[in-house]
Amino acid sequence: MATIAVYSSKGGVGKTTLAVNLAWCAATLSHRRTLLWDLDPQGASSWIMGDHPTRTADRAQAIFTRDIDAAGQIRATAVERLDLIAADASLRNLDVLLHRLGKRGRLGKLIGGIGDYDHVVLDCPPGLTETSEQVIRAADLIVMPVVPSPLAQRAHDEVVRHLGGKGPVLPVHSMVDRRRRLHADALAAQPDWPAIPMASAMEAMASRRRPLGVYAPRTAAAQALAALWTTIERRLST
Question: Which CATH superfamily is domain 2-237 in?
Answer without folding.
Answer: P-loop containing nucleotide triphosphate hydrolases (3.40.50.300)
